[in-house]
Amino acid sequence: MPKRSKGLRKEIRENWVLYLMAAPAVVALFIFSYLPMAGLVMAFQNLNIAKGIFKSPFVGFKNFEFLFSTNDAWVITRNTVLYNLVFIILGTFLSITLALLLNEMTFKRYTKALQTIYMMPNFLSMVVVATIVYAFLKPSDGFVNVMLKSLGMDPVSWYNTPGPWPFILVLVHTWKGTGYSAVIYLAVISGISSEYYEAAALDGASRLQQMIHITLPHLRFILCINLIQAVGGIIRGDFGLFYTVTRNSGPLYPVTDILDTYIYRGLTTLNNPGMSTAAGLYQSVIGFIMVLTANKIVSKIDSDCAMF
């Protein structure tokens, strides 16, 4: 212990400026992330506002029954997981593909303009996105129905027809997020030394072979980190996408209802903060387990790409 204490004092004395710079972030993390975790006790209480958090009666796991006692539990869990799997797989593939294509462009000014265009949807509010989607799918004079009428086809009541919505939601999510992810991958690609490509060109490697054997291997680290984080959030859904874009239409619930939207509607009716806390705790625990599992699998395949 004396040696450890001496080493710690030496470390702080030599790097006190760095510790001082890190202090505000550490304090903010403690205040806004760790201190509120005391409120997790509400997940096991029948919260009484008058009595406060620590004096409300405990009810065990009854708040968690809200998530599993309904016949819709399987539907919302299935929708949440399957949508996120599609978002992860399709989004990753399209983002990397777009980044590779942008990297191959020789006219850099045009490339920068395209990067800006592709990134813009990511900064739009989901309310704005929902308005754009509604302009296309409006039952009376939406763009799609106007086109269908001009072709002699009957208009479709999109917000009462569940069938097309899995494709619509995937399309909207992909349109909104692919460009931003592609720019992140492109930034990694731009940091690859040109010497690798020059050596490969001297050996007669084509551009496609250079992509496969040089570019993609250099992306594996950031790819693994993104996948691990995405898998950790697989039980969480994009509330804005599934609630706002669908306009909370009842006929669409079988294909658009996810855990987050189901909880929101239930809580607006029951007004029970304990159930909300229980749902958040359940999602966090599952996400934590998924992160550990994904990281363990990645570490077995390539230990350099694991997060810890």
Explain the overall architecture.
The chain contains 15 helices and no strands. It has one domain: MetI-like (MetI-like fold). With 308 residues, it is an all-alpha fold. Helix 4 packs across helix 8 and helix 6 packs parallel to helix 12. The longest helix has 32 residues.
Number of helices: 15
CATH architecture identity: Orthogonal Bundle
Distance between the termini: 26 Å
What fraction strand? under 5%
Structural class by helix and strand composition: mainly alpha
Q: What order do the helices and strands follow?
A: HHHHHHHHHHHHHHH
Q: Which residues form runs of ≥5 with pLDDT under 50?
A: none
Largest sheet: none
CATH class: Mainly Alpha
CATH homologous superfamily designation: MetI-like
Describe this protein with a few key phrases.
MetI-like fold, flat, 308 residues, mainly alpha, 0% strand, 15 helices, 70% helix
How would you summarize this macromolecular structure in one to three sentences?
Helix content is 70%, strand content 0%. The protein has helices at 2-14, 16-34, 62-68, 73-104, 108-119, 126-137, 143-150, 165-190, 194-202, 207-218, 220-232, 239-245, 253-256, 259-270, 273-301.
